[in-house]
Specification:
Distance between the termini: 58 Å
Shape: globular
Strand order of the largest sheet: 5-2-1-6-7
Bound molecules: D-mannonic acid
CATH architecture of the largest domain: 3-Layer(aba) Sandwich
Strand content: 5-15%
CATH superfamily of the largest domain: NAD(P)-binding Rossmann-like Domain
Length: about 500
């Protein structure tokens, strides 16, 4: 059976959507750091559609900071891949937006050439929360090992921040400032934080460089949203069934997709506005609502669901007491924490998100969402807790995902299962020390200032979390009704 490549496009079934621009002659205009599943299901799709709608040389060079898999798999298929959109009427769309994929460690020169080429007008990133190397204050973390490495080896950086500064140094020498740097990660004020981290690092390299970046390069804030479960063999098989050829790395996502971008660019951009991207002066209200309503409840489902032995978001939300708990958490504590938002009807927004979780065609693993809790929970839950404390609103329900995370860490240790988290070693050492003593484990986890910052010393917060740890310590699918109703 043949593989997906440019040759076979003409013979694909008629219903398969395809790029409508010239795949051979369209050139690169974007370099993207971290071309993982989310980027390929989201920004790359908007870019593909924008090129189909209005042309332009906006193909993407993807830069994998570590893994070689994507480059090696996509190169045999002319960097094409299929997007499977899953809802009641699923469809497949072939995405042609990638020009090339590089692996940083092996192709430094090509990566630098692409990032510093005057025709590259956008560098974007999906490097996950930990990829920004920030402290709990949202500032560049000088203790981060990648940052230390990059300061000592500025010509061979391994972090996204070090890499951006190395490229900006070359562009500064060329006075080549037609460049916008776009963070597409679930980090609050992602553009502002990235700008600050880049300028802080750049100031160590040279003050004129830092000043030039501050005066010339825009880092718009963004809000990104589309549920994108990891690729699995089932997807490979259904994709092949639909397109009739092998695709080594198809991507799947729900049909809902949203991208809100601050209208602040220091160079040209693709016709993203023609294909559904919202440009606005104030991304903050969208991003705060999305991080708290969607990502906050996602993490809650991930930890509560895993404790109950559930596997997917769909299986968890279909359990009535869990859905009731999520709705109560939203209406009593998450939505009030967001405050007034002229931009959206928050009740409707929350309702729509719960409906998205009920999409039976999406098998989104709770284990995938549970990754990197130490990095995700501060943005998703702890900031809402802080806002509620400030305004003297209740925080009890928001403490549930924190308690569930502490129990989840203990469970992973006991079951000898991998814990995916940049501070996994620390967490597992605590779990080992306090095995069989969940309250002590929760206390020890809440002492971690890198995660909890000021909340480490908040006695009210700590005691509520511990109360929930007790209520949830033996939760399972049979008693969850009782356990969850104890959590007022
Ligand atoms: C999820 C997100 O994996 C996770 O932590 O909460 O990836 C979520 O699916 C996306 O942000 C949806 O836009």
């Amino acid at each position: 059976m043949s593989e997906l490549d440019r040759q076979v496009l003409r013979s694909l079934p008629k219903e398969i959507r395809q790029p409508e621009y010239d795949l051979e002659t369209t050139a690169r205009g974007i370099v993207h750091l971290g071309p993982g599943a989310f980027h390929r299901a989201h920004q790359a799709v908007y870019t593909d559609l924008a090129m189909s709608a209005q042309g332009g040389n906006w193909k993407i060079d993807g830069v994998s900071l570590r893994s070689k898999d994507l480059r090696d798999k996509l190169k045999d298929q002319d960097n094409l891949y299929s997007l499977m959109v899953l809802d009641d009427s699923p469809y497949v769309q072939i995405i042609g937006a990638f020009n090339q994929i590089f692996v940083l460690g092996e192709q430094r020169k090509q990566v630098m050439d692409a990032m510093t080429d005057p025709n590259t007008h956008i560098i974007s990133l999906t490097v996950t929360e930990k990829g920004y190397c920030l402290s709990n204050k949202g500032e560049l973390d000088w203790q981060n090992t990648d940052i230390k490495h990059d300061l000592a080896n500025p010509e061979a950086p391994i972090s996204a921040i070090g890499l951006l500064v190395a490229a900006l140094k070359v562009r500064f020498a060329q006075q080549n400032a037609q460049l916008t740097i776009i963070s597409c990660d679930n980090v609050s004020d992602n553009g502002d934080k990235l700008a600050k981290a880049v300028m802080t690092f750049a100031a160590e390299v040279s003050t004129p460089l830092a000043n030039w970046i501050a005066q010339n390069i825009c880092f718009p804030n963004t809000m990104v949203d589309s549920i994108t479960p990891a690729t699995n063999d089932e997807l490979r098989a259904t994709t092949k069934g639909k397109i009739g050829v092998e695709d080594a790395w198809p991507i799947q996502r729900e049909s809902f997709s949203q991208w809100v971008v601050e209208d602040k660019f220091s160079g040209p951009r693709p016709a993203w506005d023609k294909v559904g991207v919202t440009f606005t002066d104030d991304v903050h209200k969208y991003e705060r609502a999305k991080l708290r309503v969607l990502n906050g409840t996602h993490s809650t489902l991930a930890y509560l669901g895993t404790l109950c032995g559930l596997e997917t978001v769909y299986s968890a939300i279909c359990i009535a007491p869990i859905e009731q708990f999520i709705r109560k958490l939203l209406s009593q504590e998450i939505l009030p924490s967001i405050g007034n938002s002229d931009a959206m009807d928050l009740d409707q927004y929350a309702d729509d998100i719960i409906n998205r979780y009920h999409n039976k065609h999406i098998r989104h693993l709770l284990a995938q969402i549970a990754w990197d809790g130490s990095q995700k929970l501060p943005f998703r839950i702890l900031n809402a807790i802080r806002d509620n404390i400030k305004e003297e609103r209740s925080i009890s329900l928001l403490c549930v995902p924190i308690a569930a995370w502490c129990l989840f860490v203990g469970k992973r240790y006991k079951e000898q299962q991998e814990l995916v988290d940049p501070i996994a070693e620390t967490l597992l050492a605590l779990a080992q020390k306090h095995a069989d003593f969940p309250l002590q484990l929760a206390d020890a986890i809440m002492d971690l200032t890198s995660v909890f910052d000021d909340l480490t010393t908040n006695e009210e917060f700590r005691s509520i979390v511990k109360r929930h740890v007790l209520s949830l310590s033996s939760i399972n699918q049979h008693n969850l009704n009782v356990c969850l109703s104890d959590l007022a």
